[in-house]
């Protein structure tokens, strides 16, 4: 029983660390979120903090997982967000929210580059996240194509990759120039791919 209680406390402390880390990174930015600062935020030494994670890289990977969990609570589970009826508003809403937490955007983008290495602790996270995002998008995109609200010139699976690439790429541009409207740009992509917006050449 004591061992089970100790395990439960460890899980709770790990969750506390991740929740506080999200707050610190959102407030201080990625550069200001060293292991030292994150440890101080939860009243631990650096060694004490890393007791709950195998490495700094694993810590930051789990912070990203926690961010996805928090976003899911705020905007609804991704399958729900990606229903045809809510796809545009849900996806654009998440991107608009990202502009309010620049430190987390910095962390995501930097980790995405590092995770190209198959040995990186975040490699599997990014592969699985991308697969899941595209999988949930495809059916919604196909439904929009059936309704005539989205071009069917391009396969829905390819469109799902395009939306993912645009969202990720806009984050990189936005980090260089925060005046860029990420949400507005992605929303414009929906407009551009809607055949109902096509102008009659005779007009």
From TrEMBL:
Residues 34-53 bind DNA. Residues 11-71 form the HTH tetR-type domain. Keywords: DNA-binding, Transcription, Transcription regulation. The keyword Transcription regulation applies. InterPro entries: Homeodomain-like_sf, HTH_TetR, Tet_transcr_reg_TetR-rel_C_sf. This is TetR/AcrR family transcriptional regulator. It comes from Microbacterium alkaliflavum.
């Amino acid at each position: 029983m004591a061992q089970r209680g100790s395990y439960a406390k460890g899980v709770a402390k790990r969750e506390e660390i991740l929740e506080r880390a999200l707050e610190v990174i959102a407030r201080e930015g990625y550069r200001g979120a060293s292991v030292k600062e994150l440890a101080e935020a939860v009243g631990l030494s650096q060694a004490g903090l890393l007791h709950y994670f195998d490495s700094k890289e694993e810590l930051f990977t789990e912070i990203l997982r926690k961010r996805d969990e928090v976003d899911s609570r705020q905007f609804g589970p991704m399958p729900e967000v990606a229903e045809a009826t809510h796809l545009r508003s849900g996806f654009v809403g998440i991107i608009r929210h990202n502009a309010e937490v620049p430190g987390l955007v910095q962390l995501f983008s930097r980790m995405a580059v590092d995770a190209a290495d198959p040995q990186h602790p975040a490699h599997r996270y990014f592969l699985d996240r991308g697969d899941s995002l595209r999988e949930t998008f495809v059916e919604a995109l196909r439904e929009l194509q059936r309704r005539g609200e989205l071009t069917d010139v391009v396969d829905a699976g390819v469109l799902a990759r395009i939306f993912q690439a645009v969202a990720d790429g806009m984050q990189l541009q936005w980090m260089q120039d925060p005046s860029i409207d990420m949400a507005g740009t992605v929303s414009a992509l929906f407009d551009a791919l809607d055949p109902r917006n096509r102008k009659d050449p005779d007009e």
